[in-house]
């Protein structure tokens, strides 16, 4: 396309050199305007063709596998119910509670599936990892149990360190009300984190990884786990 345009431009310039009329100011102005218009048209056509080509290459998205969002009922001002989609965290919590009920009823397979669904909806759900790890240990899936304990500790440790740091900074800045809120979150995370270290330590000890297991038990003790100290005395001395 641009090659054709270039050839035409050369022909017109040659005519201007041969004929005085073509070299007049008026003609040069008309020629320049037409050349600019032709260049714009050619450029627009090229962009349009490129856009059509890109659209043709796109693969339509498959929406058949998308999950239908669950909904919750809320009462509007007129008294009618308004359906609002549940958040992934809300769905995860529901699955976790259902899983705990099945676990307490010793339906470990069903509980395992529900804890997995909870994690699928919220991959930062530390308690779901903790409970799923316990079931995997009971069903002798020891690598799976360790993997879930690792993930649980990772999530909780990040939260613990984040809230602790935020609280310390706010305390330095003399913002004690906000610092107190962060320290409360640390206090909420700490016992769950301690339990995760304690449980993982016992799994490692069961697998005869004494040194690693005792390290986890010692960490659980530092975080205030009540059972960690007796186990350290019995198994790690």
Commentary on this structure:
The chain is mainly alpha-helical and 237 residues long. It has two domains: 2-55, no CATH class; 124-235, no CATH class. The protein has nine helices and two strands, in the order ααββααααααα. The chain has helices at residues 2-18, 25-57, 88-104, 108-121, 126-138, 142-172, 176-206, 210-222, 228-235, and strands at 71-75, 81-85. The protein has a two-stranded antiparallel sheet with strand order 1-2. α6 (142-172) packs antiparallel against α7 and α8 (210-222) packs antiparallel against α9 (228-235). The termini are far apart.
H/E element string?
Answer: HHEEHHHHHHH
Going across the biggest sheet, name each strand in turn: 1-2
End-to-end gap? 85 Å
The overall strand count is 2
What labels describe this entry?
mainly alpha, two-stranded antiparallel ribbon, 237 residues, single chain, 2 domains
Nutshell version of this structure?
The chain is mostly helical and 237 residues long.
Q: SSE layout and pairings?
A:
Elements (H helix, E strand, L loop, with lengths): L1 H17 L6 H33 L13 E5 L5 E5 L2 H17 L3 H14 L4 H13 L3 H31 L3 H31 L3 H13 L5 H8 L2
Antiparallel strand pairs: 1-2
């Amino acid at each position: 396309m641009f090659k054709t345009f270039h050839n035409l431009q050369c022909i017109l310039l040659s005519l201007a050199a041969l004929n005085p009329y073509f070299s007049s100011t008026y003609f040069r102005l008309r020629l320049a305007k037409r050349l600019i218009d032709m260049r714009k048209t050619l450029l627009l056509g090229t962009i349009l063709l490129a856009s059509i080509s890109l659209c043709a290459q796109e693969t339509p998205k498959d929406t058949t596998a998308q999950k239908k969002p669950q909904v919750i009922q809320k009462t509007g001002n007129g008294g009618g119910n308004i359906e609002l989609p549940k958040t992934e965290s809300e769905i995860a919590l529901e699955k976790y509670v259902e899983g705990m009920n099945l676990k307490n009823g010793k339906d470990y397979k069903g509980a395992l599936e529900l804890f997995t669904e909870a994690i699928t909806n919220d991959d930062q759900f530390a308690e779901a990892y903790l409970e799923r790890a316990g079931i995997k240990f009971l069903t002798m899936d020891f690598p799976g149990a360790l993997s879930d304990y690792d993930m649980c500790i990772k999530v909780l440790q990040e939260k613990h360190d984040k809230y602790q740091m935020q609280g310390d900074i706010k305390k330095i800045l003399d913002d004690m009300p906000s610092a107190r809120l962060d320290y409360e979150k640390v206090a909420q995370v700490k016992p769950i984190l301690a339990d995760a270290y304690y449980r993982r330590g016992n799994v490692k000890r069961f697998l005869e990884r004494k040194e690693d297991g005792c390290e986890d038990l010692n960490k659980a003790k530092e975080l205030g786990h009540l059972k960690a100290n007796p186990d350290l005395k019995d198994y790690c001395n």
